[in-house]
Amino acid sequence: PATLGVMGGGQLGRMFVQAAQAMGFSTAVLDPDADSPAGLISHHHIRCAYDDPKGLAQLARCSDAITTEFENVPAPALASLAALRPVAPGAASVAIAQDRAAEKAHFERCAADNDGVRPAPHASIDSPEQLAAVAAELLPGILKTARLGYDGKGQARVKDRAELAAAWDRLGRVPCVLERLLPLRAECSVIVARGADDQCVSFPVQKNTHRDGILAVTEVYDGAIDPALARRAQAATMAIARQLGYVGVLCVEYFLVDDGRGGLDLVVNEMAPRPHNSGHYTQNACDVSQFEAQVRAVAGLPLRAPVQHSPAIMLNLLGDLWFAPNARHAQASDTPVTPPWDEVLALPGTHLHLYGKASARPGRKMGHLNITGPTVAAVRDTAAKALALLGLPPL
Ligand code: ATP
Ligand code: MG
Ligand code: MG
User: Fold this and answer.
1) What are the boundaries of the signal sequence (predicted)?
2) Count of CB atoms situated within 10 Å of the CB of 282
């Protein structure tokens, strides 16, 4: 029985470990945190920093193949592992995904092959000279740190040059990318899995709603996204993966914007070199989950085109819920209160996933609720009831 290793021990690693174990693999997790959600359930938990040479050597020794769940794993660590074991995705792909400027340059390179799907107009801000030379068409805009941002952290919306300069100061004058603020009509994302044999399969296209920069709801069913746009987004994502020589699971996020002709156009936002929060619905609504696809890609097993067997809605469960002043189950309080899972689970087609995190904190991803059902109307109805029980805004 082979062992699959994973760099990072968060909830994505935990769900990878669960999928790997379901298929009979042993697992090894490298993560510094004693209570990491994946480390807690893995056969091996190597507790060390992501760049610790001894820990990396130990991970390589006990693993037959290695993947990552955490996009900020140092690319050199992946490169050193790759000298010893198959590693997917590779260091070069991860390094591009870690840097918004490199990522956007890759998207630009792919545009010709991509039916013209491009990133938003943007510029790198690495120096006071670049700051001063910013084109007027990029304002109002969003200034994003090139590295380490997630869930809307490390970003500032800026109206004019004065706000831009102040925001760059506030972000610590680190390398940034300024993007034009686009009027978004909607957002979607696509997950593909690609094998070392270049075989590539795509999951259905997810429609995503964000709140305060964090994914709140994902909807995947007929009618959520225009089918022609969905096909275009899937083809663009496959091209982006192919041109990276990518192996593993990749998620690419898109904006839907007015095309000026009464329709919608696609703008590519960013990619994640791993399974993605927007792909969690696959656990209960598809015949292969994004985590099983990751296991297959990493272990060199065949990839099959996933089939969605139910309309799906995923609700993200953030730590705020445990303190929700407007939910029926809790008063505003400093002590976390468990949300009413018994009432939620009494609704048809609800699947609760909690990540085993020790404590709830506002903004912390604690789990998600997948909702499946026989029809779109049934799934939407259950989602509406679950949202009301949890005191969350309606769809
Ligand atoms: P993630 O947690 O998905 O990695 P992130 O912190 O890397 O998020 P982005 O995905 O770049 O950040 O942006 C977060 C959200 O902010 C987007 O999903 C979108 O709602 C909004 N946003 C980002 N860039 C733009 C833009 N150029 N125009 C309009 N809205 C934008
Ligand atoms: Mg991001
Ligand atoms: Mg994003």
Assistant:
1) none
2) 26
Each residue of 73-130: pLDDT tens digit? 999 999 999 999 999 999 999 999 999 999 999 999 998 877 889 999 999 999 999 9
Distance, CA 189 to ligand 3 centroid (Å)? 9
172 plus 250 within the same structural domain = no
Per-residue model confidence as pLDDT tens digits over 194-252: 999 999 999 999 999 999 889 999 999 999 999 999 999 999 999 999 999 999 999 99
CATH number, domain of 135, equals: 3.30.1490.20
Based on C-alpha coordinates, what's the Rg of the chain? 21
Interface confidence: ipTM more than 0.85? yes
Statement to judge: residues 31 and 144 lie in one domain: no
Question: Are 277 and 384 members of one domain?
Answer: yes
Cα separation, 40 vs 9, whole angstroms: 9
pLDDT at position 222:
96
User: Angle at CA 98, nearest 5°, toward 283 and 205?
Assistant: 35
* 332 has a pLDDT exceeding 70: no
Indicate if 26 and 154 belong to the same structural domain.
no
Q: Which amino acid is it at 341?
A: W
Q: Which DSSP category does 140 fall into?
A: S
Give the domain-ending residue among 33, 67, 87.
Answer: 87
What residue numbers bound the domain in which 173 lies? 121-180
| 150 is known to lie in a ligand binding site | yes
Whole-number pLDDT of residue 117: 94
Domain total in the chain: 3
Q: What is the CATH number of the domain that holds 17?
A: 3.40.50.20
Q: What is the CATH number of the domain that holds 247?
A: 3.30.470.20
Q: Is 253 annotated as a binding residue?
A: no
129 and 82 inside one domain: no
Q: Which of 104, 122, 184 to mutate to test the pocket of ligand 1 (most atoms within 8 A of CB)?
A: 184
| Lookup: tokens for 24 | 């009979």
Find the 142 Cα to ligand 3 centroid distance in Å.
13
Counting ligand 1 atoms within 8 A of each CB, the residue from 104, 270, 280 with the most, and so the one to mutate, is 270
Considering the domain boundaries, does residue 111 fall inside one?
no
Task: Give this prediction's pTM.
Answer: 0.96
Residues with CB under 6 A from ligand 1: 120, 142, 144, 149-153, 155, 179, 181-182, 184, 187, 210, 213, 253, 269-270
The answer to the question of whether 181 is labelled as a binding residue is yes
Q: Is residue 333's pLDDT more than 70?
A: no
Q: What's the burial of 259, exposed, middle or buried (CB within 10 Å: 0-12/13-18/19+)? A: exposed
Residues 162 and 188 in one domain: no
The SS3 assignment for 139 reads coil
Residue 159 sits in the same domain as residue 307: no
